[in-house]
Hints:
Layout: H1 2-7, H2 9-20
Amino acid sequence: MANEEKLNPEIMHCKLAKLYELKSIRSIPHRCFK
């Protein structure tokens, strides 16, 4: 999974978004909810 995260920055962004629970849902990529 480590390699996949490096290749796909969106994955890290999704994790960070979920961790910090961003107030703006629009800032979270739609893929995060799949």
